[in-house]
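Justification of computing resources. Each target in the renewal requires a structure prediction run like the one illustrated here; the chain below, 105 residues long, is used simply to show the kind of job we budget for.
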Amino acid sequence: MYAIVEIKGFQYRAEENTVLSVPLLKTAKPGQTLEFDRVLLVRNDDEIKVGQPVIEGAAVLAEVIGNGKGKKKIIYHAKRRKGYRVKKGYREQFTNVKVTGIRVP
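Resulting C-alpha cells:
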C-alpha cells in the first residue's frame, strides 16, 4: 500500500516505514507526530483511489526524525569580456519524517 501525498508543494510517494526528506517544517520537533491530509492517490493491492484533487478523509501519518542541511549548492554568474563574476552558495534545509501509517476512508 502506498500513497502520493503533497507536502509544501512537492509530491512524495509514501509507504509505511519509509523515510522522506521534505522541505524544512519549522514548527516540527523530533519525535512529534504529523498528519498530512493532502493525499492525491492511494493504492492498496489492485484498488486505486484518485482524488479530485485530494481524497477526502485520507491522511498520511508520520513521525519527525530530525532537521538538517543538504550539500552546498553553488550559483555562479559570469559575463564574458566584462570582468563580471559572482559566486554564491547555499545549503538547503530539510526535515526527515518517517511514515508510520496511511489512513484511508
